Amino acid sequence: MKKSTRNLFRNWHRDVGYFYVGLIIAFSISGIALNHRTSFDPQEYTVKTEAIQLPVLEGKELNDDFFREASKQFTEETYRGFRKRGNSIRLYYKDAFASVDPKTGKGEIEFVRTIPVLGQMTILHKTTNVWWIWFSDIFGVAMLVIAISGMFISKGKYSFKQRGWWLATIGLVFPFIFLFLIR
To answer: Three-state SS for 83?
Structure first.
């Protein structure tokens, strides 16, 4: 490969990497934290927990209007919705959530706060904002540019042709091994 082409790849690799270094760090840290979300919640922490009592819910028509009105007894948090989850009902608020047993009406509300910095970074993995989706797609293309341009930077015995191809193959196969093992 000509030196000018190799320099072009080196420049793309360097400049695209510099532009995205902050996002790469944020995604890496928050991704590691999300991998361990069964051990701890990387997005929020509990400020306080309180027992609550609603009327017995079995046999009643459950809808947002009912829960919005019932919630006023025990919280000023903005009601966002509910979901039936197994043998309980989960109520969602701006900065809280509650679980209620529909047979007894007894439950618990948990008030939460976002973990500074880490909590915001984990939101990047979940957001469906149209602008963020476009930026993330461009980021994905940029990661391809970094990966592909990196394959052409070295020459000689450390080049992609001599050494890198087999490391890249192992790196490509490795995730598939895990996918088959966790099924």
So the answer is: strand
Phi and psi at residue 111, to the nearest 5° = -95, 130
Which residues constitute the domain of residue 58?
Answer: 44-114
Contact predicate 80/95, CB 8 Å: no
Same domain, 100 and 145: no
3-state DSSP helix/strand/coil percent for the chain, to nearest 5?
Answer: 50, 20, 25
CA distance 39 to 11: 41
Number of structural domains (the chain) is 2
Q: Please tell me the predicted confidence (pLDDT) of residue 17.
A: 86
Q: Which of 92, 98, 114 is nearest to 44 (CA)?
A: 114
How far is 97 from 41, CA to CA, in rounded Å? 14
Task: Look up the pTM and report it.
Answer: 0.64
Return d(Cα 45, Cα 113) in angstroms, integer. 6
